[in-house]
Amino acid sequence: MPRKTWEQKYHGAKPPHVAVLEKPYAGLPVGTRLFIASPALVEAVLRAVPPGGIVTVAALRDSLARAHGADATCPTSTGIYLRIVAERALERMAMGDPDPAPFWRAIEPASALAGRLTCGAGFIQQRRAAERPG
Question: Which domains does the chain have, with CATH numbers?
Answer without folding.
Answer: 6-131 (1.10.10)
